[in-house]
Fold this protein.
Amino acid sequence: MTFHSFHDPTHLYFVTASIIEWKHLFKNPKYVKIILDSLVWLQKQKRILLFAFVIMPSHLHTVLKPENETISNVLQQFGSFTAHEILKELKSDKQQDLIKAFKEHKRDDRHEHSIWQDIQAKNIYSEDVLWQKMEYIHQNPIA
């Protein structure tokens, strides 16, 4: 059974964000810092409450609750900011192989590159599901 996300201001969400082609971008701490800085900024701006997260080499999971925003707006802000910052660092580091891969596998013709696969958010609709997702996050290895 698949659950589709819909915005409910009372729900928490289990979010998964994966790098295009599952590239192990987050083995490098500078790219992890971009993710952490973005999550902190979203918290400070009172756009999310963050309950748990894990960053693995090629993807991340979070449990969060949007504040004063829809889940789609939060994910768009997170995805856009982090993609731009990651791409800026890749260019600065002259990571031509990764830049080429992100260009070849772009998901949207409006953009030159895609860093993220579709960022997915699933509604957490019960306490049991919350505990399952929290346990899943805590059992995942970190980058």
